[in-house]
Write a structure and sequence with these properties.
Elements (H helix, E strand, L loop, with lengths): L1 E8 L5 H10 L4 E5 L5 H5 L2 H18 L16 H24 L4 E5 L2 E5 L2 E4 L2 E10 L3 E3 L27 E5 L3 H13 L2 E5 L11 H12 L4 E3 L2 E9 L2 E8 L5 E4 L1 E4 L3 E3 L6 H4 L22 E3 L10 H17 L11 E4 L5 E5 L2 H6 L4 E7 L4 H6 L5 E7 L5 E7 L3 H4 L4 H5 L5 H4 L11 H6 L3 E3 L1
Parallel strand pairs: 1-2, 1-6, 2-3, 6-16, 8-9, 8-14, 9-10
Antiparallel strand pairs: 4-5, 5-6, 7-15, 11-12, 12-13, 17-18, 18-21, 19-20, 19-22, 20-21
């Protein structure tokens, strides 16, 4: 049996940083990874997909070149093998970087294999038995595969297997109209595929406000992406050398036929084969490990960080989990997950930057609202770039004058939204942002304008 101070399962966004912090504090650490180093973000999430989004953006802009007075001598085509090669190069660099980091970290031993709990202090990793004072679980998640008739007989794609695609699907059917599905749908339309998005709900990205959903639908439809809402996928079957998705719907054809299908209907945590029961660790009905406000499980020496704890589904929330755990354990801090303000992006083009409450959430909480809204067509920078789709919306609590949330759907929205975050964490009144001077011409410079034109929203 190999004894350590701390065991870390998984090398996603939280695990390596935590290993370094613990090792530098003099702790003897073991890191266990059963697959490629770096987790979802590096291997089939943020790094590769945003690299692909960048290629798709260039293809789109090249086709629009004449609008900017630029002549391109011939039709714009996309070499998917080269697109994939660029993506692979960036991904491999990141993956190899994480592995080298862990293998050269002082006071740290790396085990490659599958970890499973023997008890609350002990792991079995293939033929090795490891024990430690504390154990940190950072195992991430994977695509949810629904139990659909026909699925076991037909090839299908997920966000993970899309990373192996080096060809252009003739007609890609995306099952799922949320964040992953919309990014891939727009991306492959720009590469040159026909794309149909099938969403069972009444609108795309149902967690967002209806005005955001409607605007994104209009953006995608303008690129000739076929969008089917209120259409529940009930079965898959072979059709003309491709695949047909049968849908339960009240409007439109009951079958959508295409060449390939991408399932983007959610994610599940990688917790079903860890032996949680042997350690007495509780999880919920969906497999997410239950944690308290400090990321500690019901077993006092075991912590769960990142996607597997259900307290966040993003790279930045996983990294913040690391910061909370490390600061609390090593610096005597009192940081809590509940102090975190929700913030995330949808990386379509234009992107959506979201922080804090949606309008629906604020109303449900009983807040008395002031709201400001501005179309991107009023933003000089957007007009100059020829990218005027979308709008900005900011919510303020009328009683406290504090900023509750914002949605910025438009060019630079994923960056501009950060100009509100510090004021929200500092619980400053909105006038502190309104009276600040911004660089012209930028997208952020219009946020003070919006805050100066707030109106009550019943």
């Amino acid at each position: 049996m190999d004894r350590y101070d701390d065991l870390i399962i998984g090398t996603g966004q939280a695990g390596p940083a935590l290993a370094e912090r613990l090792a530098k504090a003099g702790r003897r650490v073991a890191v266990i990874e059963k697959g490629r180093f770096g987790g979802t973000c590096v291997n089939n999430g943020c790094t590769p997909t945003k690299t692909l989004v960048a290629s798709a953006y260039v293809a789109r802009q090249a086709r629009r070149a004449a609008e900017y007075g630029v002549a391109i001598g011939g039709p714009v085509t996309v070499d998917m093998a080269r697109v994939k090669a660029r993506k692979d190069a960036l991904t491999n660099r990141s993956t190899q970087g994480v592995e080298k980091w862990m293998r050269t970290l002082p006071n740290t031993t790396v085990y490659q294999g599958h970890a499973r709990f023997v008890d609350a202090h002990t792991l079995k990793v293939d033929s090795n038995t490891l024990t430690a004072e504390r154990i940190f679980i950072n195992v991430g998640g994977r695509p949810y595969i629904p139990d659909l008739p026909g699925l076991n007989r037909l090839p299908y794609l997920t966000n993970e297997t899309m990373m192996d695609v080096d060809f252009l699907p003739e007609h890609l059917i995306v099952v799922g109209g949320s964040y992953v599905g919309l990014e891939f749908g727009q991306m492959y339309r720009r590469f040159g595929s026909r794309v149909t998005i099938v969403e069972m709900g009444p609108r795309l990205i149902g967690r967002e406000d209806p005005d955001v959903s409607d605007a994104i639908k209009d953006i995608l439809a303008a690129e000739e992406i076929d969008i089917r809402v209120n259409a529940k996928c009930v079965a898959l079957e072979a059709a003309n050398g491709g695949v047909a998705v049968k849908v339960d719907c009240s409007n439109g054809p009951p079958t959508v036929a295409g060449s390939h299908v991408l399932l983007a209907v959610g994610r599940v945590p990688n917790t079903d084969d860890l032996g949680l029961r042997e350690a007495g660790i509780e999880s919920d009905a969906h497999g997410f490990i239950k944690v308290d406000d400090t990321l500690r499980t019901n077993v006092s020496n075991v912590y769960a960080l990142g996607d597997c704890n259900g307290r966040g589904a993003f790279t930045h929330t996983a990294y913040n989990d690391f910061e909370i755990v490390a600061d609390n354990l090593l610096s005597g801090a009192n940081r809590k997950v509940s102090d975190r303000i929700p913030i995330y992006g949808l990386f379509t083009d234009p992107p959506l930057g979201r922080v804090g409450m949606t309008e629906a959430e604020a109303r449900h909480a009983g807040c008395k609202l002031l709201m400001g809204r501005l179309p991107m067509s009023k933003v000089a920078r957007a007009r100059e770039k020829g990218e005027t789709q979308g709008f900005m919306k900011v919510l303020v609590d009328a009683d406290s004058s504090r900023i509750l949330g914002a949605a910025i759907l438009g060019v630079g929205g994923d960056e501009a939204v950060h100009s509100l975050v510090d004021a929200m964490y500092a619980r400053l009144p909105y006038v502190a942002v309104q009276h600040g001077v911004r660089i012209h011409p930028t997208v952020s410079e219009l946020i003070p304008t919006i805050l100066g034109e707030l109106e009550p929203s019943a």
